[in-house]
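Example record

One chain of 106 residues, shown exactly as stored in the release files.
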Amino acid sequence: MSKKYGLILVTAGSETEAETIASALITEHLAACVSVHPIKSLYRWRGEINSDTEWQLVIKTDLNLFATIAAKITAIHSYEVPEIIAIPIVQGAVPYLDWLGSCLNS
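Predicted structure tokens for this chain:
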């Protein structure tokens, strides 16, 4: 199966939760790198508009691993409906993509 590199975006309710998810994905070779950033999220949940500080994970991986990654995140995550969305990498520097691939189980 050919590699299909991309980014998976996930939000978490705390820095600790974000780092727990990131560490699990890196440890299990499901992600090559996870960047974690504090963000402000405004969203609708159960009919109400909410505004919260969250932590955005930007997960660099092979999207062929998406189902496994999504299952792992869902098992760890505290949210009832966590954000888990994928964005394909259309182009990238070959040395970086080679490194990314060398870090993964794909």
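Notes: The mean pLDDT is 96.
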